[in-house]
Amino acid sequence: MHLWNMDNPQHDALSAVTLPALEWYWKKEMEPFDPPERFFRLVKQPDEDCILRDDFLPYIKALLNDHPGLEFLANHAEFQEKYAVTVITRIFYSVNKCHSGRITSRQVRRSDLLESFSLVDEEEDINKVTRYFSYEHFYVLYCRFWELDHDRDYRITREDLLKYGDHSLSHMIVDRIFDSAPRPFEHDKVDREHLSYEDFIYFMLSEEDKSNEVSVRYWFNCVDVDGDGRLNNMEMRSFYAVQLHRMQCMGHEIVPFEDMLCQMMDMIKPTNPDHLVVEDFMQPECSQVSGALFDALFNLNKYLLFEQRDPFVERQKREDEFETDWDRFACIDYNRLAMEEEAREEEAMEIDWVTVDEDEEEEPEFNGAVSSEAPF
Ligand SMILES: [Ca+2]
Ligand SMILES: [Ca+2]
């Protein structure tokens, strides 16, 4: 309608779509183009040359109204909104690799957006649509954010992020995440003291799957402190020094920097042994090991796991049903959260019984005691 009104100023402005307007639209905007270009033109605003964040909203709203897998969210406007934010941010993470916040026609063409949109249209089990739309993936992302955002102002601080994954990140990488990691939106006024939920999604997707191009660039950017596009010994050594200190404090056997680096270089086999460039991490045989170097530099818990890895578990991992490390992580973490939630519910029921038995009249005072619970 907007397009028609812009293109036909000689007519009275339309307030509803008429058949001639629809035919005109089809002939002008759809018929001459192939499916990816049609998708692009349909989603973007008529006077823009790229897709912006809010352009996906009407489609996610329609999905929330019609998809059987999302029916149970019908009376929870707040979670519907968070679901939409999550799906849209995940789309930008994978499709808008340059993180400009503007998806171009070329990016649509090189992405799996069309397949994902048509899959979610056909597939009744929303959790099978692991690209962008899975409810379980949303649940995991949002619960993890909720756990850290204890004051409920919808943003997290450096202190909060240090608690992520059982305090697995070093303070040095947390500072770099806040100071220089890519952010999805609001580029002109980035709040470097906080991470929004959208920023957190970028962080968490990168943290839990270090084997794809977007996450490699995310972490590379964080460790490349001088920004020259190379990871040199000094940069890696300074991150590793913080890890060494933590290993010592916790009484773990320490691995000297040179030994760690030597082991990593043997796996990554960079073109130039003096420094690493992003392309070194992108070699196909490298995708499963490149994350190990990043973990060695800033994620103590994962590095210790890597050091003690069990070849049997490694093989199982390679042969399981999951396409990506993120899918595997999200499935395991969803089950963990669901079990915790179940245990909490059982506990709450027991408390209820006790209250009813002992002190029936005071029961209403229990309201409000649930603020630390997960949001669902
Ligand atoms: Ca907060
Ligand atoms: Ca550098």
TrEMBL record:
Q: Which PROSITE patterns match?
A: EF_HAND_1 (PS00018), EF_HAND_2 (PS50222)
The stretch of residues making up the signal peptide is none
The protein depicted here goes by the name EF-hand
GO cellular component terms, alphabetically, are: protein phosphatase type 2A complex
- Keyword Calcium found: yes
Which superkingdom does the taxonomy of this entry point to? Eukaryota
Which keywords has UniProt assigned to this entry?
Calcium, Metal-binding
Domain named EF-hand: which ranges? 211-246
Concerning InterPro entries, the annotation shows: EF-hand-dom_pair, EF-hand_13, EF_Hand_1_Ca_BS, EF_hand_dom
Task: List the Gene3D superfamilies.
Answer: 1.10.238.220, EF-hand
Q: What GO molecular function annotations does the UniProt record carry, in alphabetical order?
A: calcium ion binding; protein phosphatase regulator activity
Ranges for region Disordered: 353-376
CDD domains the record matches: PPP2R3A_B-like
Bias class Acidic residues marks the residues at 353-365
